[in-house]
Amino acid sequence: MEAGMHKIVNDTHPSRDIILKMPKIEVHRHLEGTYPIKSLFKMAMKNNLDVPSDIDTFKKTFQFPKNHKPDFLLFLSKFKKFWYKSIDDVKYITLKSVEALADENIFYIELRFNPLHFTELTNLDPCEVTQAIIETGDSAAKKIGLHIRYILTFNRGIQTANEMIHTYKLLHNSDLSRVVGIDLAGDEINYPPELFTPFFDLVKKDGQFRIDIHAGEVTDTNNIWTSIDQLHADRIGHGVSAINDPKLQNVLKEKQIFLAQCITSNYQTGAWEDEPSHPMKDLVESGVPVTIASDDPTIQDSLLTDDYMKAIVNFNWNIDSIIQLNLKSFDSTFLTNQEKDKLKKEYLLSIESFKNKFRL
Ligand code: ADE
Ligand code: ZN
User: Fold this and answer.
1) Which among 77, 266, 296 is the best mutation to test ligand 1's pocket, defined by most ligand atoms within 8 Å of the CB?
2) Is 97 close to ligand 1, i.e. is its CB under 6 Å away?
3) For residue range 174-197, what is the model confidence (pLDDT) as tens digits?
4) pTM, entire model
5) What average pLDDT does the chain have?
6) Structural domains in the chain?
7) Where do the H-state alpha helices sit in the chain?
8) Cystine design at 163: which of 9, 60, 159, 284 (Cβ 3.0–4.6 Å)?
9) 188 CA distance to ligand 1 centroid (A)?
10) Per-residue pLDDT tens over the stretch 340-350
């Protein structure tokens, strides 16, 4: 059994095969943590990279080690930047990642990526990378019938606020019409949110994008408060520590600021001590806006489907609990109200055919 998962699946729960087919919504997913391992391996072999040449060892090397004690910095260290040799590599791995979303029936996704992740060890241009990812993602999504938008991630350990401002302005040379948000990710322990106020003041002033901040994942709620008060956060990545702060919970409810929580990721990073007692259940029950997401399936060796299963098994939820959570999750998205209403109707139709297919 996977470490952290202690409860036994019983017969009354829907099977993983059924949950795999359920239409899903996901607003917290990193492209760099989404690559299908087989495609990544293929690309690494093509590029003659110095990596294990058998796929099982390769997989073990680049994923969070099974049964390792939770470790935030080890988790973050698994995001390698040496994969890419050309813009075609970026397109290839984006295509394979978006195609894989169809395998678990993602209905709507806000896929985030950090353009600089792809350029740091290459001579690729961040605007070209941004354009390539969006065009490849859009064209794959269209073929599959998947709804997709993008979020640009800025990494707090890599750039100062001024450097982020520079990159942000530079990226406006690409077509950003499909981008709905700006995200702050990386090591919140050593790079707290207040360091980035000038950058998010600018994003807020521009008014073109919504703001999503990784905060309170492995820290107390100070980082969440600062993200709301100083970085203008519209949504919080993880925010696990909010469970200990009723005053903050009230603010999240009043302002309808969603916490995008990720059961598997939160265990591996040490954000929460185990999976069965994850605070999502209590937060949802007390009316705090929460959406369920996967974060980084490749690193974690688990899909969004597995996070749904963990919620069902550990919180004693059923399919309808997840459907209700997903319907509410439309309000966590960075779409316009009109887009939300349209997609919600479409989502309900796809849920209806899912239920009919499995006689649920
Ligand atoms: N980047 C990718 N996954 C992350 C996480 N869980 N926390 C912070 N930054 C990340
Ligand atoms: Zn994340």
Assistant:
1) 296
2) no
3) 999 999 999 999 999 999 999 999
4) 0.96
5) 96
6) 16-316+328-358 (3.20.20.140)
7) 16-21, 37-46, 55-62, 72-77, 87-103, 126-144, 161-171, 197-206, 222-229, 246-255, 263-268, 280-285, 297-300, 304-315, 319-329, 337-357
8) 159
9) 9
10) 999 999 999 99
